[in-house]
Design a protein that fits this description.
Helix content: 10-25%
Distance between the termini: 66 Å
Largest sheet: 8 strands, mixed
CATH class: Alpha Beta
Strand content: 25-35%
Radius of gyration: 20 Å
Shape: globular
CATH architecture: Roll
Number of strands: 8
Length: 171
């Protein structure tokens, strides 16, 4: 249980699958290291070296956080993710993180802070709040299963407008 009485809700997207979406609800005082381990578990990935980057509104990388503690005595070195809390990196709506899980092939997930809310006493955090489409394969980007567009799926309930043949829009 967290001492902070608020939940951050992040939306995760992938540039490998337009259909992949995950929403995660987490405590803001969770360290980036704890967040990383939670994401690995939620995605079903094996442990791997990652970097988490704070990014700007255009997804340009601003600051890097790594699993290894490089020490504070090296200017410009990334900070250790176990020493940094989410609320230190993100604290406004639409703040963004890039979760790079495959450095060699430059593969990443994109996370945006989409909501801040009070925790629900009936739920346990951190948690996956929403998921759509299969997770991209951890090791082979070509093996990523594609499914229908999330937009098409979400809009399918509206169907096509059948119209009224007796309606005349001319006056």
């Amino acid at each position: 249980m967290s001492a902070v009485n608020i939940i951050f809700k992040y939306r995760m997207l992938s540039d490998e699958s337009d259909n992949f979406v995950r929403d995660f609800e987490v405590y803001p005082d969770m360290t980036l290291g704890e967040f990383h381990r939670f994401l690995l578990e939620a995605l079903g990935y094996e442990p791997c070296m990652v970097s988490i980057f704070k990014s700007d509104s255009e997804w340009r990388l601003v600051e890097e956080f790594t699993e290894l503690d490089m020490g504070d005595d090296i200017p410009g070195s990334p900070r250790c993710m176990d020493n940094v809390r989410l609320m230190e990196v993100n604290n406004d709506f639409h703040d963004r993180l890039v979760y790079t899980f495959d450095m060699i092939n430059d593969r990443s997930y994109y996370l945006e802070l989409i909501d801040m809310q009070r925790p629900d006493a009936t739920l346990s955090y951190p948690r996956v709040a929403f998921e759509h489409a299969p997770v991209p394969d951890q090791y082979d980007p070509e093996a990523t299963e594609q499914s229908g567009s999330i937009f098409e799926e979400m809009m399918s309930e509206y169907g096509e407008f059948d119209g009224d043949d007796n309606y005349d829009d001319e006056y």
